[in-house]
């Protein structure tokens, strides 16, 4: 399927007349008919009821609506690409681990989106995926939670988030505070399972530093899934304290006795990248971080 098939079909769906559609497209009618037939053959369904008057089939109406949306999105992408290429706009790609969305990141995104001269791209990904995307040029800055040793990547700690235990409502260890020794006796839900290393390895290393091992009852790839499984009684988990803004009646949070049990929010970027968009982003991060600390 080629892009022209979508454009030809849109013209026909809007006019419901081969002659008028061909005139709009500045092509002859026979080639238009052949292109529509090729599209139907590729999809394996009839898009048109070729009676009098010409009508769209049920499948045709569905394809018309969704292909029109695709073409509109493509038009916006092409327009922004031209504007970025001509210097009218800048593009900034941000990668983020889900648990970093409870600090300065939402404020940063709001500030950046209000800039008419900036096109913002957001991608949910682990720190390891962020590093690969930074090196490939798919993003410009990443927010994650683990340190990665890579000479092409510069990392800095934005803040240290205290860790808290997430436990099912009514758990004997609530309301806390609790010790890591107490928690090590409980089954754990750990995330993300893949790719590794990840935040899960940070949690495992934290217990190992105290000579403790934990039993992993369930691995999952998402923070929200882990919290849901905690509520279901599968196990407990450790989450950054900022996640406590997620108020749920079926789980409780307990602070840790070990004050040094923290999880960093780490900013990753390419070494030597001094683009104006990234420089502006980093200045905003510093300003917002000071506001949060204050």
From TrEMBL:
<dbReference type="Pfam" id="PF03466">
    <property type="entry name" value="LysR_substrate"/>
</dbReference>
<keyword id="KW-0804">Transcription</keyword>
<comment type="similarity">
    <text>Belongs to the LysR transcriptional regulatory family.</text>
</comment>
<dbReference type="InterPro" id="IPR005119">
    <property type="entry name" value="LysR_subst-bd"/>
</dbReference>
<keyword id="KW-0238">DNA-binding</keyword>
<protein>
    <submittedName>
        <fullName>LysR family transcriptional regulator</fullName>
    </submittedName>
</protein>
<dbReference type="InterPro" id="IPR000847">
    <property type="entry name" value="LysR_HTH_N"/>
</dbReference>
<dbReference type="Pfam" id="PF00126">
    <property type="entry name" value="HTH_1"/>
</dbReference>
<feature type="domain" description="HTH lysR-type">
    <location>
        <begin position="1"/>
        <end position="57"/>
    </location>
</feature>
<dbReference type="InterPro" id="IPR036390">
    <property type="entry name" value="WH_DNA-bd_sf"/>
</dbReference>
<dbReference type="InterPro" id="IPR036388">
    <property type="entry name" value="WH-like_DNA-bd_sf"/>
</dbReference>
<keyword id="KW-0805">Transcription regulation</keyword>
């Amino acid at each position: 399927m080629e892009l022209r098939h979508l454009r030809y079909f849109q013209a026909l769906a809007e006019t419901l007349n081969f002659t008028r559609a061909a005139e709009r497209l500045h092509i002859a009618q026979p080639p238009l008919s052949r292109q529509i037939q090729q599209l139907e053959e590729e999809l394996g369904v009839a898009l048109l009821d070729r009676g009098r008057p010409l009508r769209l089939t049920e499948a045709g109406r569905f394809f018309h609506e969704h292909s029109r949306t695709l073409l509109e999105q493509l038009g916006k992408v092409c327009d922004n690409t031209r504007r970025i290429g001509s210097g009218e706009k800048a593009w900034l790609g941000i990668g983020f681990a889900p648990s970093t969305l409870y600090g300065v990141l939402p404020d940063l995104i709001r500030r950046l989106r209000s800039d008419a001269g900036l096109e913002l791209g957001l991608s949910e990904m682990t720190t390891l995926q962020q590093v690969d995307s930074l090196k490939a040029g798919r993003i410009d800055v990443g927010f994650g939670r683990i340190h990665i040793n890579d000479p092409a990547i510069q990392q800095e700690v934005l803040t240290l988030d205290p860790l808290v235990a997430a436990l099912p409502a009514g758990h004997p260890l609530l309301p806390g505070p609790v010790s890591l020794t107490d928690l090590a006796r409980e089954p754990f839900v750990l995330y993300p399972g893949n790719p590794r290393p990840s935040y899960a390895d940070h949690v495992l290393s934290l217990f190992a530093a105290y000579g403790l091992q934990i039993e992993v009852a369930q691995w999952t790839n998402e923070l929200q899934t882990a919290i849901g499984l905690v509520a279901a009684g599968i196990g407990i988990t450790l989450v950054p304290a900022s996640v406590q803004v997620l108020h749920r009646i079926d789980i409780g949070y307990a602070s840790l006795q070990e004050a040094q049990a923290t999880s960093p929010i780490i900013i990753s970027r390419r070494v030597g990248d001094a683009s104006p968009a990234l420089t502006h982003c980093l200045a905003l991060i510093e300003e917002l971080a000071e506001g949060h600390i204050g």
